[in-house]
Amino acid sequence: MATIAKIVLGILTGVFTALAFLYLKPAEGFPRPELARIVALHLPNAMAAIVAAFVAAIFGWKYLARGRNPLDDAKSKIAAVLAAIFCGLTTVTGMVFAQYQWGAPWNWDPKQTCIFLLLLIYAAYFVLRAGIEDPEKKGATAAAYIVFAGVMTPLLGYVIPKYLPSLHPTNTKFDAAYHTVIWGMSACLIGIFAWLQNIGIRYEQVKGMAQQLEEEMA
Amino acid sequence: MGEMFPLLAVALLIWAGIFGFIFVVDRKVKALEERVNRELALTRKGEEAIR
Fold first, then answer.
1. B13 near A CB under 8 A
2. CA A122, CA A115: separation in Å to the nearest integer?
3. Which of A69, A117, A192, B37 lies in the 20 to 30 Å Cα band around A181?
């Protein structure tokens, strides 16, 4: 990622954060309308989590279908770590929202229950990786599992809770300002995901090269 | 709107911290890449010289 792109990403993130605080009107219909603005960070985190989960699943599938390349496994693992982080951030921002709007940070609302299941799915992925020694077996099992997690992420995060009675508002109509900030912030978080994914891949590559160097020296 | 400024300042500080941290990690990985590449090139050169 070019340095200029990183600087632009930083500036845009700052701009959209400022817009979330200063440009968005308090959301009417909530007990604390001014704090409902956190939705401008909550939804983009959820979107970044879904993108990261798809990237992890795509590289997992690629690992299984195209020659078991260890780099594909590494790319899938890094994206899964980032998907879990964004899922965690979605949960935390959601809990802040719930504390102020519904009186308690955790209400076992269908969406909260679903994201809890999703966090468990990602936790199980890391336990699975840690539990298998043989790198090829580990890669294949983890890849199959992460494809399943990639399918479950939008299902648990969006589709299933949509059809269940929830504390989450179902008839919310965001105005143009909210749309601008939410989509802009989503683009920024997806940019941050791409940057972190790039750093992770480079680190895995350099680790492989260092190993090769050690073997050559031995 | 005025009461939002302290919160905004905190949010921007947090973002600055996050970006700063990612920048530092990025630089460290770049330095590591350069070091390993240099060492790999030297090893190959050495091997060729021996041959």
1. no
2. 11
3. A117
